[in-house]
Amino acid sequence: MATRLLLTVPLVLTVAAATVAWVALGPAAALAFGALALLEIAMAADSSVPMAGIAGRLHSPARRLFLSIGIVAGVLAMRLVLPPAAVAVGGATDPASAVDEAVFAPGSFSAHLAEVRPALAAFGAAFIWSVFAEYLFNTDRLSRRSWLGALEARLARVARPRAWSVVTAATGVLVTTVLVGRHDAWTPDAVLPVAVGGAAGVGAYLVSKRIARWALRGVDGTDTGSVGTRGAWRVHAYAYASTVVFERGLVVFMLFEILDGVYSLSGSGLLGADGLGALEQAALAVAAIAVGAVFLARTTSHLDQAATLKRLRYLKAGAAYVLGVLAVLLWTSLLVPVPGTVVAWFGTVVIGLALASSLPWRAWARRFRRRTLAG
């Protein structure tokens, strides 16, 4: 029953959009859209556990905003807006021209996106590693069981955990910059973008944490000087939720657009094979991404309401390590190509291992033995 309710809204949206596509563009377009929407739903399923891990750290008003519209807005903004914005900044062109190129000249846009990709990947790797380091060094000083044993337990008890987060992220930026400078795959011109992008990633993380701490004081009501009205309190709640939306939207963008290497509006072979026009392809791609974002929001909300991460004790650790692996893969992709199989399955493997280690195998084995002896 719960699964059916979870899928109802995304499937209704998929059927409705496919029907419109069938009437307006023909059956081939409807089938292509259905395939894209199902692919987005499948990819969203992998991201729901890390999303739920972040949502669990939010207070109630910000959590409701994040789970209702924040995830959808963040995913759409990052997946659709950030690539043209990056091309516009990197290529010194105006945003309108970048969007026009993404829709009508996908080959040129992909080439321009590849030019700014080193800076984007370095930015994302540094930012996402910093988010992962919150778990690794236990910056909130929460009581927990270590998933990976003694080493993880020691790292969770280090003094000055926030300083360690910054130091490890900065070290990753420095090492990657040096290796990129020595690697034949990149020209020396890529060194500066990687260094600047990595430094900007660390800086953006620190700014987002500063905003989150300010907003959290307002949500908690401890900052009495700035929270005197309900409107001001809402500003704090929205600011706190927006920092988390940015974190998660950036993660999805880095996974599906940068690490995968294909921009959603210009890289779909399913749509290109149908002979559709550029605007029709873009419209169907946006609709498919929206369906996936809605499914992601509903799945994350379901996991949060069911307290799944609390009942399965290592699943939260798995969700955190997905971020750590993603950051390492982004840094690695600046030096060597990352196989598509790794991109597609690393999150599933990590979450699967965390889930398997969370299940009460020993208790089940004891009950089985007791039943066997009793029989």
Write out key terms for the chains shown.
globular; 375 residues; mainly alpha; single chain
List the helices and strands and how they pair.
Layout: H1 2-25, H2 27-55, H3 60-91, H4 95-104, H5 106-136, H6 150-155, H7 161-182, H8 191-220, H9 230-259, H10 269-272, H11 278-305, H12 308-311, H13 315-333, H14 340-358, H15 361-374
Helix pairs in contact: 1-2, 1-11, 2-11, 2-13, 2-14, 3-4, 3-5, 3-9, 3-11, 4-5, 5-7, 5-8, 5-9, 5-13, 7-8, 8-9, 9-13, 13-14
Short summary:
By secondary structure, this protein is an all-alpha fold.
Give a verbal description of the structure.
The protein is an all-alpha fold. The radius of gyration is 22 Å and the shape is globular. α3 crosses α5, α3 runs antiparallel to α11 and α5 (106-136) crosses α9 (230-259). The chain has helices at 2-25, 27-55, 60-91, 95-104, 106-136, 150-155, 161-182, 191-220, 230-259, 269-272, 278-305, 308-311, 315-333, 340-358, 361-374. The two termini are 35 Å apart. Residues 222-228 have low confidence and may be disordered.
Low-confidence residue ranges: 222-228
* Helix share, percent: over 70%
| Gross morphology | globular
What string gives the helices and strands in order? HHHHHHHHHHHHHHH
What is the rounded distance between the termini? 35 Å
How would you sum up the major sheet? none
Strand-residue proportion: under 5%
Annotation, overall tally of beta strands: 0
Mean pLDDT: 75
Sheet/helix structural class = mainly alpha
